[in-house]
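To: structure subgroup
Subject: Chain for Friday's discussion

All,

I'm putting the inputs and outputs inline so they're searchable in the archive.
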Amino acid sequence: MWRCRAADLTLLRAGGVYTDFYTTNFPTGAIRGAFTRYTFAIPTAAANRVQYGVAVMVNEAMGSSLAFDEVIVDLAQLSAADQLKAYEELSGRTLYSQSVQVLDTMSGFQNSLFSHANDTPADLGTFSLFARGGYTVGKRDDTRDQAGASLSRPYILGGIDTTFLPNASAGIAVAYADGTDKFRNNLGQTSVSTIAGLGYVSLNVARVVVQGVVGYGKSEIATTRNMPTLGRLSSSRHNGDGWSMAARVALPYAIAPDATLSPYAQLDTQNASIDAYTETTLPESTNAAQPGFLGRPPLGGALQSPDAYKDKDFGVEVGALLKARVSPVAHVPPRGWLSPVP
């Protein structure tokens, strides 16, 4: 498999390019076979532009690298239907999860700290410890550019805060989350572990509560991309980071002696950066974390991201918080024939 000059195509098609092996028994050489050029037909049955785009890339990539030529040889032996499946697997529709998980994690930390800031503050001039935790589950939709997934993310957050003025409090926290997206149709998974530092400030000015949260986190990312049609599995371990910033304005008012309703408006932004990385691709039946299975070089199909890439999110939220205190009711003995009358 090689990239030949246009002037040589006529000779190639005519079978005028061949292999010639020289051995001890055949010192003058022995012709073993002629080379022919295989051209991938662009699939007219492509279900979407992702399949079409990968097919065009494959057709142009012949001879670009020995590793990818292995993929092309395997593709050439597949049926047309399986070729379309392989194009999907090569398209990288699972890659979005890395930055999206960093953004989601930083947003979750931020909202947890907002929730704590709305709790009863510490006494003036004193410090208090706090902790929160939870487990997030959900689903990501399958779209033309993104593979659907089920997500899970346990997290924990703890810190210290103080009320430094009668109407002002502030605190700092450390948070950890371990999220995983498992992709549908056996396409693999992406895990993102994040540890972050955050801080908040809360001010109550003329019954208007103004709050702000900032945070920065470092992430460790482990990706696994299954390519079952091609019998390959690609994996990588690399790093990323993210930061978040948010502001909230609320106007609490009492709706009952022990109940408060607080309408609020919030602006927030999160940013993620994923470091450059290169995957290792091995036969699907082997351990993807073991480079060069049995001493052989990794297979073609690995993805290389030579530069760091960034992602960001911006949100506007309007809502209301209801806080109510339920007090125990004192027991009053019933009056009547079952109880003595004073």
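Points worth raising on Friday:
The first helix runs from residue 9 to 13.
DSSP finds five helices and 14 strands in the chain.

D.
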